[in-house]
Amino acid sequence: QAIKSYAHSKGVRLVGDLPIFVAHHSADCWARPDLYVLDGSGQPLVVAGVPPDFFSDTGQRWGNPLYNWEAMARDGYRWWIERVRRQLHLADVVRIDHFRGFVDYWEIPASEPNAVTGRWQPGPGEALFKALALALGDLPIIAEDLGIITLEVSVLRERTGFPGMRVLQFAFSGDAGNAFLPHNFEPATVVYTGTHDNDTVPGWWAGCSAHERAFATHYLGLDGREVHWAMLRAASFSVARFSLCQFQDVLGLGSAHRMNTPGTMGCWTWRFKWEW
């Protein structure tokens, strides 16, 4: 709270992050096992993940226990209300990860070693967010709606009024119809030069395809220098409600300063130095 108060005194607001799922070895799961799909000994019967896609032939088996949404509905979604209340106490805005999981989510039998075998199950949908709004008022939430998004997910996000996400590093792989290009944004958008899972902009630029390089050069009016500032300008000048960037992109740092590489260990250790 001291950090939050200091930030507010400088006109700075904090964005927090709320993963959709929790760990099996968490206080939440231990205290309320009835809110999860567990067996009689408290072990998960099914676990979370995403099915095989363009990025992975075996999908992603995250391993988190899945919610018993019927039990949560009977409880008036009280656990979720208290969880979001706590997050908004810590931060001013909260990004909810894997927003599509509130519409439908991939259920994997706990005995399966990967995410190939599974099935889609319905999430709570709008009922959860109506309960949250009734208890907490206006919800300063960002919906992480990246990946393969269905019409139903887009409809839910629009009904809640939450802004979705766009990442400029994903904008130049296709043509002018790419949803991540600024001219295709709607105001209810939060645009990132790159998220914590992306390379830095100079790192991305060094490794992008010839098509991406040519398209970005034309679209951003690049002269071959300081592509990170061109990306920052494109984000800031767009109609998006908010624009965010990695601090590494403000400093123009390369791949050695990447925050996180998904699926690998040893990340999240980066620190800046004042002389930079």
Structure in words:
This protein is an alpha/beta fold and 276 residues long. The chain is 32% helix and 16% strand. It is built from 10 helices and 10 strands. It is globular and about 65 Å long. The chain starts with a helix and ends in a 25-residue tail after the last helix. The relative contact order is 0.10. The mean pLDDT is 95.
Largest β-sheet summary: 4 strands, antiparallel
Return the structural class: alpha/beta
Helical proportion? 25-40%
Rounded mean pLDDT score: 95
Strand order of the largest sheet: 3-2-5-6
SSE string, helices as H and strands as E: HEHEEHHEEEHEHEEHHHEH
Number of helices: 10
Q: Find the count of extended strands (DSSP E, 2+ residues).
A: 10
What is the CA-based Rg, rounded?
Answer: 20 Å
Give the overall silhouette.
Answer: globular
The proportion of strand residues reads 15-25%
| Distance from first to last alpha carbon | 28 Å
Poorly predicted tracts of residues: none
